Every structure is written in C-alpha cells, then in structure tokens.
Amino acid sequence: MQPGSPDGAAKARKLRPSPALILAVIALICALTGTAYAALGKNSVGTKQLKNGSVTTGKIHNNAVNGAKVANGSLTGEDINVGKLGTVPDASHAAQADNAATVTGHAAACPQGTTLIRGICFDSTPSGPVNGVKAAGDACAAKGGFLPTPLELYSVRSVINLGTGVGNDYQFTDSYYDNSSGSNYSTVVIDGTGTIQREPITVTGRYVCAYTLVR
Question: In the chain, where are the structural domains located?
Fold first, then answer.
C-alpha cells in the first residue's frame, strides 16, 4: 500500500492521538501535580518526613529560634558564652563586692594611719597625752573610732608600740569602773612591756583608737 493512497492516509489518521486523549493526559498531569503540591501543604511535613541530621544550621533562618523553642534546662555552660553576658539585674550589689573597699555601700578598709589586726583597725602610733580616759574616749569618737578593751589592746602590744610605761607613757583602754565605795573611779592602762595596771580616770596618758573594718 502506498503512503499517498487513500487507505494509507486513513491509517495515519488512526495512529494520531485524538484531541480528547491529549486533554485527558494534560488533566491527569495537573491532577497529579496538584496532589503532590497538596501533600506539601501547610503543616503537612512532620518529624517522620525529616531525615536525622537533615536540618543544618544554614537551613535555619537568623533569629528564628527563641527562648520559647528551647527546652527548660537544656542549655549548659558549654552552650553559653559567659563573656557576652551583661550584668545580672538581681546581682546589682555584686559589683560592689568586686571592690574590697566597700560592702553594700559602706567603707570596708582601715583609715589612713591605722593597722589591720585580726579584723580591727588600730592606730599605728599612739596619740596624746590627754588628761583622763574620758578625753581619750572623746578623741577616738571624733575620729570615728573607740577605745579598745584591755584584752584587745594587750593582744596588739607586739605590733603597736604601746609605750615604755615610764611616767605617763602608757595607753588608755575603755575600762571604767568604781571601787567598793563607789566614789573613786578607775581605768586600766597598758604599756609596751605588757604591764596592765589600774589608774585614776583623771590620770594623764596616751591612747590608741580602734575602728571597725566596715563602717
């Protein structure tokens, strides 16, 4: 049979897809594409669809993860750059603890000219002489200090020169008491030799003031 014959032309027309078939194929492709698209619609991909390790840092948008997305207690010290942290609001007083000169705003250092001994600041050198233990006590109070007790002053005799004990070269303490009759008051004085003796409260002597470390 020749191609140009009427029978050959009829057979060629039979091998061509009809317009209806072409439209049907196109509709099928669109339907399948829509189904695939619908399968990836909103909230359609879950943890089962993700391979382990498939989500990398580069696939997470900047600032996409916030505190609400982090499990409580899941971050450790290794995950946090401490150097990037600012001052903790509830630790506002901690900055003062870095400065040994202050404790909650109060001075925590010995005054100039004093020596720190076992948590108490003592004048490095005695003052005076003055007439009476009351005058010595007032002088210490004016400097923000106080007269030490007999034992406090006695315990620092190897560090601070408390005098020779000759004449009035001794130091007043805060001791103030009366005798059995209650008419003559006495005080206790100490010198550098470690001698502790009783003297009238009006006697002339020297004094070493003491100060609390935190004032």
Answer: 114-212
For 67, phi then psi, to 5°, come to -60, -30
CA 150/CA 169 separation, integer angstroms = 16
- CA torsion, ordered 42, 47, 48, 49, to nearest 10 deg: 50
Q: Which overall architecture, per CATH, does domain 114-212 show?
A: Roll (3.10)
User: In whole angstroms, what separates CA 189 from the centre of its chain?
Assistant: 46
Tell me the two tokens of residue 7: 């029978």
Three-class DSSP category at 192: coil
Q: Are the C-beta atoms of 101 and 109 separated by less than 8 Å?
A: yes
Point out which residues pair with 196 in neighbouring strands: 190
Other Cβ atoms less than 10 A from the Cβ of 115: the count is: 15
Over residues 121-136, mean pLDDT = 97
Q: b vs e for 124-154, b when ≥16 Cβ sit within 10 Å of the residue's Cβ?
A: eebebbbebbbbbbebbeeeebebbebebbb
Which range (33-42, 47-56, 148-157, 195-204) has the least confidence?
Answer: 33-42
Predicted TM-score (pTM) above 0.85: no
Amino acid at 81: N
Nearest to 165 by CA among 211, 196, 122: 196
* Contact indicator for 120, 86 with CB cutoff of 8 Å: no
Count of all residues that appear for the chain in the document? 215
Per-residue pLDDT at 19: 72
- What is the C-alpha separation between 42 and 26, in angstroms, rounded? 26
